[in-house]
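pls design
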């Protein structure tokens, strides 16, 4: 009886051991199969074995779209990166507000992001960056720990702050948005290349730029006053143009009249000179005749100008006195 019980126990142990072996084999197969990974059509993958890339050449290290095998963890670790996909990043760091300052009526620069224009206006821009991964292997080793997206956002944020500081509020709110992007985009690309991030910037878009909530009432008041000032300046310039046009017209009229008068005086002078020359030539030939003519003309002129003329004989001779009145 005891032998029979021992045989049953041995058979049970053998069954358990066989089952454990089967389970171990199954778990080993499942463990090995867990190393199978799929790379999507817009991705590439890299396998790190104990922290070192698997493969000798760049082509061997890069796993293209399809099904691939790697050793299960902790031996291998698979990293996938999108390479044909446009990645859209939202730079909202200037919009983030600390919970403690959310209900404050004053702006706290330490907890609220903002930018300063060159004429001392505080603004909050919202920027969208579109980029693609150009060098995935470089990203894996250069910026993977911090995340390449954070690196791109930090570079764009720094360039946005610098660019806005060179522009005025009027420019930014009118045509300066394009100028801002024109300044920022090449500098962002240069910064990314210098850092070796392996990212290509496709576009930088300024979606919105507004004043902080705490400054909106003052901003709009200042903006309204600025518009009023610009209106007054335009009106003053129009008035200046009208006055200048009127003054120019009057000056031209005066010049024309002066030129006419000068022409008349010159003509009269030339005529008088010609008459004088004729008289002078006659006088040179016979001074007495010219003197008598002038005396006679003077007497005639005096008599023509006189109103009443009274002739009074003097003595018994042929002399008379003439009394003239106007």
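designed seq:
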């Amino acid at each position: 009886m005891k032998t029979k019980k021992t045989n049953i126990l041995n058979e049970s142990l053998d069954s358990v051991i066989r089952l454990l072996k089967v389970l171990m084999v199954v778990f080993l197969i499942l463990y090995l199969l867990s190393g199978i990974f799929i790379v999507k059509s817009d991705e590439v993958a890299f396998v790190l074995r104990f922290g070192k890339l698997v493969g000798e050449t760049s082509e061997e290290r890069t796993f293209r779209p399809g099904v691939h095998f790697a050793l299960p963890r902790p031996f291998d670790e698979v990293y996938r990166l999108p390479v044909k996909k446009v990645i859209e990043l939202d730079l909202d760091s200037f919009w983030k507000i600390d919970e403690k300052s959310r209900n404050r009526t004053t702006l706290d620069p330490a907890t609220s992001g903002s930018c300063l224009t060159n004429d001392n206006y505080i603004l909050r821009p919202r920027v969208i960056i579109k980029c693609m991964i150009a060098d995935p292997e470089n990203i894996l080793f250069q910026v993977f720990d911090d995340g390449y997206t954070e690196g791109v956002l930090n570079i764009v944020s720094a360039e946005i702050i610098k660019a806005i500081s060179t522009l005025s509020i009027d420019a930014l709110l009118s045509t300066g948005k394009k100028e801002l992007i024109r300044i920022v985009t090449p500098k962002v690309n240069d910064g990314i290349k210098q850092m070796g991030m392996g990212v290509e910037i496709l576009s930088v878009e300024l979606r919105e730029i507004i004043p902080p909530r705490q400054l909106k009432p003052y901003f709009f008041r200042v903006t309204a006053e600025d518009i009023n000032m610009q209106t007054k300046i335009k009106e003053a310039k129009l008035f200046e143009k009208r006055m200048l046009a009127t003054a120019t017209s009057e000056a031209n009229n005066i010049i024309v009249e002066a030129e006419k008068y000068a022409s008349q005086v010159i003509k009269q002078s030339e005529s008088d000179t010609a008459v004088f020359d004729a008289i002078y030539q006659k006088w040179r030939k016979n001074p007495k005749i010219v003197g008598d003519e002038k005396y006679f003309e003077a007497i005639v002129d005096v008599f023509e100008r006189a109103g009443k003329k009274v002739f009074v004989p003097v003595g018994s001779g042929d002399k008379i006195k003439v009394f003239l009145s106007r």
